[in-house]
Amino acid sequence: LQKISLIKEYNDYLILGVPTRFFRDWIVSRYLDKILEQVKSFKLSLNRIEFKIIEESRGSTNLSKIDEINKVTEIKDSILNYNRLNPNLNFENFIQGKSNEIALSYSKKVCEHLSRYNPLYICGGVGLGKTHLLNAIGLELQPDNNVMFISAERFMYQFVKSIKANDMVKFKEYFRNTDVLLIDDIQFMNGKEAMQEEFFHTFNALIDQNKQLIISADKSPQDLEGIEERMRSRLGWGLVADIHPLTYELRLGILQAKEEKLNARISENILEFLAHKITSNVRELEGALNRLAAFSSLVGREINLDMVQDLLKDLLK
To answer: Model pTM?
Structure first.
C-alpha cells in the first residue's frame, strides 16, 4: 500500500499513482472499497478514484499514458469495478490442443446458442486456461448482452458487504438482471452455507429466465468439497468440460505463441527444453519465458542452455 501515491486532488475525485497495472489490479480487487471509504470520510464530495500507471526509471518518476479502460470507480457502483474483461484473453489467442479442445468447443457453442446449454461448467487444475475461456466468452457476448464476470471470492465479498449494509435487495437485483453470468473459481464457496443459499436462488432465477451461466472450478461438480448436494446437482445440469493437463505439443505451442508476441530472442531448442521440463501449467511456462526474455534483453544476446538452467533453477528442480 505504501507504493500508492497521490498525483492530484479535484473536487469530486482523486488521481492515484501506482507502479504497474498488476499492482493496480491487485489493489482494486482487495482494498479499493476500504480506500474509497477512508477517502470519503476525509472529504464527502469525493466519489471516484482514477489510476495512473507510474514508471520509475533512473531515479526519476515519469507519468505514463493513462490506462483508459475502466479507470474510473464510482462508490455507488463498486461491484462494476470487478466486472472487467481482459481484451487480451480472447478466443483468437487461446492455444488449442487435445487437452482443452472440448472445453474450447463448448465455450464457442455457448456463444452461438445462448441458454441452450445451461450451465456451462469448465473444470481443471490451476493455470490451464479456465479463466481465459470465461473471459473469451464474456468478450464474445458482451456487445449484445449484459455480461457479468466475477470471481466467487468477489461474489462472497459483495454478499457479506450487502448484508452488513442491509442492502440485499440491490445485491439480488444486480446479479439477477444480467443476461450472462460468469463465475470464476466456484470452489471458493466451500463451506459458506449462507452464500451457497443465495447463489442457489440466483442460479435458479437466471435459469428460469433463460439467462446463460458459465462457471469454472478446479474440480468436477460431484467432486467439489463443502458444497451442498443440491448445488452440485444444479452445477452438473448442463455441459461439463474438463481441461486436462497440458500435452507437450500444447506446451510448446503456447511457448512459441508467447515468444512471437514478446519478440524475444529465444531459440527453438530452448523452447523445446522448457516444454519438456515445465509441465505443471501455463502460468509457470509463461513466467519462465518472461524471465528469459527479460534477461536476453538486458544482456543483449541470445540465451543458451546453461543460462536457462541457471536462471530457472527454482522451476527446473
So the answer is: 0.68
